[in-house]
Specification:
The structure holds 2 protein chains of 2 kinds.
Chain A (H helix, E strand, L loop, with lengths): L4 E4 H11 L4 E4 L7 H9 L6 E4 L3 H13 L4 E5 L1 H16 L4 E7 L15 H6 L9 E3 L4 H18 L2 E7 H5 L1 E4 L26 E2 L6 H22 L2 E4 L6 E4 L2 H16 L4 E6 L1 E3 L4 H6 L5 E6 L5 H9 L5 E5 L8 H12 L9 H5 L4
Parallel strand pairs in A: 2-3, 2-4, 4-5, 5-7, 6-7, 11-12, 11-14, 14-15
Antiparallel strand pairs in A: 1-8, 6-13, 10-12
Helix pairs in contact in A: 1-2, 1-6, 3-4, 9-12
Chain B lengths: L25 H14 L6 E5 L14 E4 L5 H11 L4 E7 H7 L1 H9 L5 E6 L2 E2 L5 E2 L18 H4 L5 H5 L5 E8 L3 H19 L4 E7 L3 H4 L3 H15 L3 E4 L6
Parallel strand pairs in B: 1-2, 1-3, 3-4, 4-8, 7-8
Antiparallel strand pairs in B: 5-6, 7-9
Helix pairs in contact in B: 1-7, 3-4
The chains are: A alpha/beta, B alpha/beta.
């Protein structure tokens, strides 16, 4: 471990990537992630790498596609609207089975939405985004330290499975400063990558493609991908449970929202409430196993998100009807307040239905 | 008796039978690329970018590394590869829908940056693989499946001249338009392609060769009539020549 440094989340992403052996970055400006390309433009040339500001997100992700095919550790970053544009390329990269890391510092949508933090790209990240039967490993860090750690892990996971890995942060995580230590770790990037298109010297030509026009061949390819995804589900799911022991009510949250919920858990525990927190760290694969553990004592769940309710669908699938699963969320850059979460927890503790989300519209007396 | 082989398939190409329509000039363009890769002895250091279009499977015909790109994105994929492997030769092979419509931004910006790649641009004035819709290069009055009354500029605009457009960019070092409608022009096309690859190998900048090509199937013409149509109809709209050529590769 080196000395801790005080860094913005976005800059920590850049530094962690470089320390993980990433030497190529292709990006396009969009708020709130601009410190990532700016950091890379300063640092990459100094370490013999390449920073390129592309003409669009479409071009950036396709540069990533090319660089990954050539065998490099490569990264791009963006935010919601830009990730929508990159989704075409991500589908190709997943189909062609190439490793790369994509960072999404999520802002509020839909459309141009806003530039404030949100978690409303959960569906896009975990359910596809682009076309076809493919999956992207999605990591949801909750602090600048974890952001740095997971960026480094992301390159290893990408290489191990030859699959895109997405870091899903949000505007707060990208902008806030926290102490961070960059862990010394061996570079695990396989070199050379025998499948890379580097020029067919002394070997048969390598072809990187996602087109398989014969239905039987494409069917086989898709089931091969599923086999790989099944292995990822088995081996890579990560989560944290706070106060597992005797908790009867569990909050479920990831990323920045999990930080808010952690505070709520501490406060309510002081008041004697048996409450815990399930924090998914991998959003895909979703850590369903965590819910088997907490269902032993837990009798109700409250999922809290900066969205109108996306991850809550995966929570319901994991809980599978064993316990009630409630939802609370704010959107558009508004944060779920500890007070609003606490009120709902106390309602659940009283055996009541918690107030539904959407108080801002009710305050105005309807749409 | 001494038997000397004086003509054959380029070494970097394989025995695969091409699936292109009779009279299509993709075969000629592929062969020219193959001959130049052999002549420059770069088969082991070259990476091709296969496009979306009739030539999507062009990697089946070559014994070199290939990376297949999404429609229009070939110059971006080529940029990614070339930036990682600056000592390799990287080329894209793109049709007019790919390069001049959906991928206009990618080719313009690759040229703007002076990416040291070579773009082979097949202009046949029509979308081939999707069965003959209007392309950005479709001629005024030309009947296609989406301009059934002929291309009307009031509704569908005018043919786009990519070679001229790209030649205005400082990063574009070699820009030429050639044709494949007769042997003399095929020979000129070969020379242009050779210069384009040399421009890349010498690290001078971006190079592109636009090749006027035939599509007898979608034009509804015999192969011979299709070649005549290039000469009589296409060349007046798309004049041939070198728009930019660096002294170093003369």
């Amino acid at each position: 471990m080196g000395d801790p440094m005080l860094m913005k989340g976005n800059e920590a992403v850049g530094e962690a990537a470089i320390r993980a052996g990433c030497r190529y970055f292709f990006g396009y400006p969009i708020t709130p992630q601009n410190e990532i390309p700016e950091y890379m433009s300063r640092r990459l040339p100094a370490v013999g790498g390449v920073f390129l500001q592309a003409e669009s997100e479409l071009a950036a992700i396709n540069m990533v596609y090319g660089a990954a095919g050539a065998g490099a550790r490569v990264m791009t970053s963006s935010s919601g609207p830009g990730i929508s544009l990159k989704s075409e390329g991500i589908s190709y990269i997943a189909g062609a089975e190439l490793p790369c890391v994509i960072v999404n510092m999520v802002r509020a949508g839909p459309g141009l939405g806003g530039i404030q933090p949100a978690q409303s790209d959960y569906f896009q990240a975990t359910k596809g985004g682009g076309h076809g039967d493919y999956r992207v490993v999605v990591l949801g860090p909750g602090s600048v330290q974890e952001l740095a750690d997971l960026v480094m892990d992301a390159f290893d996971i990408a290489d191990r499975y030859r699959n895109p890995v997405m870091i899903m942060g949000d505007g707060i995580l990208g902008q806030m400063m926290e102490p961070v230590e960059f862990k010394e770790r061996p570079l695990s990037s396989p070199d050379p990558k025998p499948w890379a298109t580097t020029g067919a010297k002394g070997r048969k030509p390598n072809i990187i493609t996602s087109i398989h026009i014969d239905p039987e061949v494409l069917d086989r390819h898709n089931w091969h991908l599923q086999e790989k995804y099944r292995e990822i589900v088995e081996r890579e799911a990560r989560f944290e449970i706070v106060d597992a022991g005797d908790s009867e009510i569990f909050l479920v949250a990831y990323g920045t929202t999990a930080r808010i919920c952690r505070g709520v858990v501490e406060k309510l525990r002081e008041r004697g409430l048996k409450i815990g927190l399930v924090r998914p760290i991998t959003l895909w694969p979703f850590p369903a196993r965590a819910f088997d553990e907490v269902c032993r004592t837990g009798r109700a769940f409250l999922t809290v998100e900066m969205s109108t309710g996306q991850m809550v669908e995966d929570v319901r699938l994991a809980v599978a009807g064993r316990r009630p699963v409630y939802f609370y969320g704010r959107t558009g850059g508004a944060l779920p307040s500890p007070k609003a979460i606490m009120e709902r927890v106390l309602q659940i503790a009283d055996g009541r239905e918690p107030d539904p989300p959407g108080e801002s519209i009710r305050k105005q007396g309807g749409a | 008796m001494i038997v000397e082989r004086i003509f054959g398939r380029p070494r970097c190409m394989n025995e695969m039978v091409m699936r292109y329509c009779p009279g299509c000039t993709h075969g000629i363009a592929h062969r020219l690329v193959g001959e130049i890769i052999d002549e420059l002895d770069i088969a082991e250091t070259t990476i091709g970018i296969a496009p979306v279009g009739c030539s999507v499977f062009m990697y089946d015909y070559f014994n070199i590394d290939f990376h297949q790109a999404a429609h229009g994105r070939a110059p971006a994929v080529a940029t990614g590869i070339k930036r990682v492997l600056p000592d390799r030769v990287v080329f894209t092979y793109q049709g007019d829908g790919d390069l001049a419509s959906i991928g206009t931004a990618e080719v313009v910006h690759a040229a703007m940056r002076g990416e040291k790649i070579t773009v082979i641009f097949i202009n046949n004035a029509v979308y081939g693989m999707t069965s003959g819709q209007m392309a950005p290069t479709t001629l005024i009055g030309q009947v296609t499946t989406t301009t059934p009354g002929g291309r009307d500029p009031q509704r569908a605009g005018y043919p786009i001249r990519m070679a001229e457009l790209l030649s205005t960019l400082d990063g574009a070092a070699y820009v030429a338009r050639v044709s494949m409608h007769n042997p003399a022009n095929v020979a000129k096309a070969r020379k242009a392609l050779l210069k384009a690859f040399k421009t890349q190998i010498q690290g001078i900048g971006f190079s592109i060769v636009e090749l006027l090509s035939s599509c007898p199937t979608n034009w509804g013409k015999s192969p011979a009539d299709a070649l005549r149509w290039i000469e009589e109809k296409m060349i007046p709209v798309f004049p041939l020549g070198e728009f930019k050529s660096p002294k170093e590769v003369e």
